[in-house]
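Give me the fold.
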Amino acid sequence: MVRQLRDALLMDKRRMERETHRANTSFNFFHMKSARIEDQVMLNLKILKTKHVAGILAKKILTMRDAT
């Protein structure tokens, strides 16, 4: 009886350890994925900002050229 209870508790412990390991693996995966998405968003913002500044400069150059 005691042995069966001990074995059952040990099986429960192992099951919970596996579930915890799976949860940690999923958490780490999604954390890494969100960091990549954040990096991509920041890069896209930099690209958009650069394109915006380039557009403003192009308009100024055209305006200056047309004024002469």
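The chain is about 95% helix and 0% strand.
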